[in-house]
């Protein structure tokens, strides 16, 4: 018999009957016990909410009876007030009658015959109650006369001749304990909360009336979700709402009350499974002698992995052990391959880290340059602004100050526009208005844009003759921007009096547009990443080069969006440089047949 068969027999004998006949019923039993505990508390909460509503229904019945009083119908307020005082004296409650203007006409909390407070400020609230024509129960409030926590039922009604009143039945919140059961040995605590999650009463004294509900209970009340709520201390709360008042009856209890029986059932079942496991272990132990030798041989072969040539174990006569030995033998070869792969991945990771470090340094350098480039124009702008504020300036001085502000503002605008362009291009937010266009006007516009900059450095801009018409499908504005950026870059990095040459030729089905100079050239280490964001060559100590290192990155992105490519060539520092753009050619519009 194979080892697998022996072990399967052992496990079957010990565990299958227990698992088959106990697992599913046990799970249902555990869930049923827990659900029973929850249902019991939910029923208790609902019963308590019914008791709460019972008090209010009784009060509503009294209000209906009083609203039909003949003394009230005849507007005999003093007689009605006397009757109200008599009724409320035995009820530990107060009755207040408001007219439609919000003024109290009767208040049993004020001694009979005493003047009533001016409550016309409540006119809007009384108007809303009269408009709704619905009996409502307030949240917890402070009595204006007793200054104690109170709750009230407000009953709007109308009499003949369109006379409207609101009758309020109020009593201290502490009297709501009549609706709560007495504390029991189960440790359950009953609470009543208003719609704002403030405590009205609890059957655990002393009750902190007016205190805010715990956050978990308050969240359930505000979201109007009843049912079971888990508390941070491990206990539970069961919530039920009162249909009439909108208040909440909350029963808090311990985890033992809900989960205790379920845990005990699970514990007993676990002990049974443990006994079954021990039986399986004992059975396996009795059978282990037969395979001990084979396991020892296989372990020796496994221990040799990684410490020398793979070693195939001697046959043991047990199929599974022999198969395992062969698998271990094959695993040795796989381990060597995995080690080589791990080394390769480590090299890749180190390279990726170097790239990330390089990019991070470039970012830091860019931020430093950005601060400098944005700060530089501020000094001349500030000086010019102070000059403009000085009296008695001549027209020439005013013009000079204005020119300084305009020039430096234009410089800052170019910097910000470069940043915005790069941001839009790298995030794919730029849209190209592509159409067939000739390259000659593009070059002419770029040369015109940079002619003043070149003249200031005594550079000569030369455009090689273009043979034939060269048309591309592109965005004219963006292609002018790309060409002008390359020209501006050549102007900045060339010594005064240099020649900068622009050339456009056809190579196969592509347009090759090149800008070359005999300037400072490009270091070999910078050349592979010259089109990366923030990449720049070494800056002169006077920082006259300026710029943020965004121009070439913008060139690269815009050319890519046109389906082309851009490359940089240089023999090294002091050897000049050449930038080459390749774009697909397209037929000239007047040569396309209809």
TrEMBL record:
Stored SUPFAM superfamilies: ATPase domain of HSP90 chaperone/DNA topoisomerase II/histidine kinase, Homodimeric domain of signal transducing histidine kinase
Pfam families: HATPase_c, HisKA
Compartments, record wording: Cell inner membrane
Coarse class of the protein's main subcellular location: membrane
One Gene Ontology CC term in the entry: plasma membrane
Keywords: Kinase, Membrane, Phosphoprotein, Transferase, Transmembrane, Transmembrane helix, Two-component regulatory system
Protein name in UniProt: histidine kinase
PROSITE patterns according to UniProt: HIS_KIN
Signal peptide start-end: none
Major enzyme class: transferase
PANTHER family: HISTIDINE KINASE 1, TWO-COMPONENT HISTIDINE KINASE
Membrane-topology annotation of the record: Multi-pass membrane protein
């Amino acid at each position: 018999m194979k080892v697998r068969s022996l072990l399967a027999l052992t496990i079957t004998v010990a565990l299958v009957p227990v698992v088959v006949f106990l697992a599913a019923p046990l799970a249902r039993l555990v869930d049923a016990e827990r659900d029973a505990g929850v249902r019991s508390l939910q029923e208790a909460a609902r019963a308590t909410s019914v008791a709460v509503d019972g008090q209010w229904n009784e009060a509503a019945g009294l209000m209906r009876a009083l609203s039909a009083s003949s003394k009230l119908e005849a507007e005999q307020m003093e007689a009605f007030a006397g009757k109200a005082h008599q009724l409320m004296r035995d009820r530990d409650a107060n009755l207040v009658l408001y007219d439609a203007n919000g003024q109290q006409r009767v208040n049993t909390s004020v001694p009979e015959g005493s003047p009533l407070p001016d409550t016309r400020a409540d006119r809007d609230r009384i108007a809303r109650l009269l408009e709704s024509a619905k009996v409502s129960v307030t949240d917890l409030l402070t009595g204006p006369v007793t200054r104690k926590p109170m709750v009230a039922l407000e009953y709007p009604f109308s009499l003949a001749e369109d006379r409207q009143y609101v009758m309020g039945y109020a009593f201290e919140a502490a009297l709501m304990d009549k609706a709560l059961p007495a504390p029991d040995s189960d440790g359950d605590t009953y609470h009543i909360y208003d719609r704002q999650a403030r405590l009205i009463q609890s059957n655990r004294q002393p009750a902190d009336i007016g205190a805010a509900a715990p956050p978990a209970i308050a969240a359930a009340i505000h979201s109007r979700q009843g049912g079971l709520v888990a508390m941070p201390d491990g206990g539970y709360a069961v919530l039920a709402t009162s249909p009439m008042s909108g208040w909440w009856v909350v029963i808090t209890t311990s985890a033992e009350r809900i989960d205790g029986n379920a845990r005990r059932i699970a514990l007993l079942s676990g002990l049974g499974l443990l006994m079954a496991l021990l039986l399986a272990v004992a059975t396996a132990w009795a059978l282990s002698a037969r395979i001990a030798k084979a396991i020892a041989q296989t372990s020796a072969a496994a221990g040799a992995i990684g410490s020398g040539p793979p070693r195939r174990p001697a046959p043991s006569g047990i199929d599974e052990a022999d198969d395992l030995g062969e698998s271990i033998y094959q695993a040795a070869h796989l381990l060597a391959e995995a080690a080589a792969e791990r080394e390769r991945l480590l090299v890749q990771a180190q390279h990726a880290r170097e790239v990330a470090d390089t990019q991070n340094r470039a970012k830091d350098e860019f931020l430093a340059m950005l601060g400098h480039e944005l700060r530089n124009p501020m000094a001349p702008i500030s000086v010019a602004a102070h000059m403009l504020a000085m009296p008695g300036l001549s027209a020439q001085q005013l013009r000079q100050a204005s020119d300084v502000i305009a020039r430096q503002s234009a410089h800052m605008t170019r910097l910000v526009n470069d940043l915005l362009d790069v941001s839009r291009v790298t995030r794919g937010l730029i849209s190209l208005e592509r159409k067939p266009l000739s390259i000659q006007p593009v070059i002419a516009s770029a040369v015109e844009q940079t002619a003043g900059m070149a003249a200031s450095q005594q550079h000569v801009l030369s455009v090689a003759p273009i043979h034939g018409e060269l048309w591309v499908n592109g965005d004219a504005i963006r292609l002018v921007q790309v060409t002008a950026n390359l020209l501006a870059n050549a102007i900045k990095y060339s010594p005064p009096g240099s020649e900068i040459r622009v050339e456009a030729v056809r190579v196969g089905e592509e347009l090759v547009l090149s800008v070359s100079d005999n300037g400072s050239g490009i270091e070999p280490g910078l050349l592979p990443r010259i089109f990366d964001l923030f990449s720049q060559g070494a800056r002169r100590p006077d920082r006259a080069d300026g710029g943020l290192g965004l121009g070439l990155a913008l060139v690269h992105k815009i050319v890519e969006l046109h389906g082309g490519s851009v490359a940089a060539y240089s023999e090294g520092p002091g050897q000049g440089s050449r930038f080459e753009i390749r774009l697909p050619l397209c037929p000239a519009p007047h040569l396309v047949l209809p």
